[in-house]
Design goal:
By secondary structure, the protein is of the alpha+beta class. It has 18 helices and 19 strands. Strands 4-3-2-6-14-15 form a six-stranded mixed beta sheet, with no helix packed on it. The protein is elongated and about 80 Å long. The N and C termini lie far apart (58 Å).
């Protein structure tokens, strides 16, 4: 018991104190002025203002732009305001200053969260998404730093209290409070072909280069016909060209050849049906294709339809691992905590979650993703400033045939800069190549300007 008590005090106590259900945290606010939240360049994202009468107001100078990722601290808590509530209600100001304030009955200034968020990229992603529903998430594959996280429709955290009833009244339709980047779940559409291709490579490690299929624009099995997007006829395609042209018929054909038990194992290697390694709220993606599934379900699943659901953050993590030689770095939003004088109190270092695929598997997938840009559906990303790779997607949803979400997932790199990975989804917008790709291009252009 003594050993456990010591372990709890040293290793676990802060975790329990920081639990959002712990009412003890509310008492901290009686002694501490809630700390600031800033971007990586010091742009103020959240602060507490105190008037002459001692009344405190939580303010968000960037307004809606960071609404979901920074969150809010009244009417409950969300975003960083929730997950780092404890750090914001601690003070590591100079000890004599704290002692004097305690004696005089004054509050001490809380510590500051210095986030990984890049204000230029956040602005670019926010403006590129416009007034459409959807999400954009950008991160560094080699560190796990989240550089931008945008979700729309959004809200103004400065008026969260006065607008609370109106927000809840419309929440069934718009889900304004939902952070679509980390908590939204969508059919992945053709972005899932990266997963299907990985499974095929694993089942045919020496023969995948010999894959060949003659695309006539559609494929039929078990009285179920699946068409290529726009009824395009791609002719003879290998695995790389199937990816570049996003050939539904070819990938449905691949799906019919797969060992479905192994397919499930590969999906779970990529964290489907598992919690993502985050310190903030994120949803668990779902893959439910069973080994006894019929041909129609297999074909639909292989092209990212069926019952599969995934979050934009999860897709960004998958392409990050592909770019990073198969190793997934844990995504994180806060790089350090500082006291009111700017001195470092706590530092959060990059750490690896683990290997999602082998280095050689990642290399093959990178080649396919580059072909999507050089000769396929994301050709608009070709640039002299950087090298881009990715996968477009148009994910059908609902009962109206033809309604689809626009996806793009991928990464870009250039000499002298860290690579970045991105996931974009725009709800009900149609083609990933015409809607998702331009948003990604805006972000890439901003980063490598």
């Amino acid at each position: 018991m003594i050993a456990y008590f010591t372990y709890f005090q040293v290793a676990r106590s802060e975790q329990f104190i920081n639990n959002p259900y712990n009412t003890r945290l509310d008492s901290f606010a009686k002694r501490i002025i809630r700390g600031d939240i800033v971007s990586d360049d010091g742009t103020l994202l959240a602060t507490t203002k105190t008037d002459a009468d001692g009344n405190e107001t939580r303010e968000y100078p960037q307004g809606k732009k960071y609404a979901h990722v920074v969150g809010y601290a009244e009417n409950g808590k969300a975003g960083l305001e929730s997950s780092y509530n404890f750090q914001l209600l601690r003070s590591h100001s100079f000890i004599l200053e704290r002692v004097v304030n305690e004696i005089e009955g004054k509050k001490n200034q809380g510590d500051t969260l210095v986030t990984t968020l890049n204000n230029d990229l956040q602005q670019a992603a926010y403006e590129a998404l416009g007034d459409r529903k959807g999400a954009v998430v950008v991160l560094e594959p080699n560190s796990g730093k989240i550089l931008a996280m945008v979700s729309k429709p959004d809200f103004d955290p400065n008026t969260i209290v006065s607008n609370w009833d109106a927000i809840l009244a419309n929440d069934d339709q718009n889900s304004v409070l939902l952070n679509r980047a980390s908590q939204g779940l969508y059919p992945p559409g053709s972005t899932f072909k990266l997963v299907t291709a990985l499974e095929y490579i694993r089942e045919h490690p020496k023969a995948y280069k010999n894959y060949s299929y003659e695309c006539s624009g559609s494929i039929t099995a078990d009285n179920y016909t699946l068409h290529c997007f726009g009824n395009s006829v791609h002719g003879e395609v290998d695995l790389k060209k199937s990816m570049a042209k996003s050939c539904n018929s070819s990938f449905a054909n691949i799906g019919l050849s797969l060992d479905l038990k192994s397919y499930l194992d590969t999906c779970e290697d990529l964290l489907f049906n598992k919690s993502l390694p985050t310190e903030f709220a994120s949803s668990k993606s779902r893959f439910s294709l069973q080994p006894d599934a019929g041909d129609s379900a297999v074909m639909a699943t292989a092209i990212g339809q069926g019952e599969t659901l995934v979050s934009p953050l999860h897709m960004a993590l998958i392409v990050s691992a592909i770019q990073n030689d198969g190793v997934l770095m844990k995504p994180y939003l806060v790089q350090r905590v500082e006291n009111s004088d700017g001195n470092e109190v706590e530092c959060y270092e990059p750490s690896a979650y683990g290997r999602l695929m082998t280095e050689s598997e990642a290399k093959v997938l990178r080649g396919m993703m580059k072909a999507v840009v050089t000769e396929g559906t994301a050709s608009a990303l070709a640039s002299e400033k950087y090298t881009a790779a990715g996968k477009t997607g148009s994910a059908e949803f609902g009962t109206n045939k033809g309604d689809s979400h626009a996806w793009f997932v991928g990464y870009a790199s250039a000499k002298g800069s860290s690579p970045i990975a991105i996931a974009v989804i725009v709800e009900g917008a149609g083609s990933g190549s015409s809607v998702g790709v331009p948003i990604a291009k805006t972000v890439f252009d901003t980063y490598f300007k």
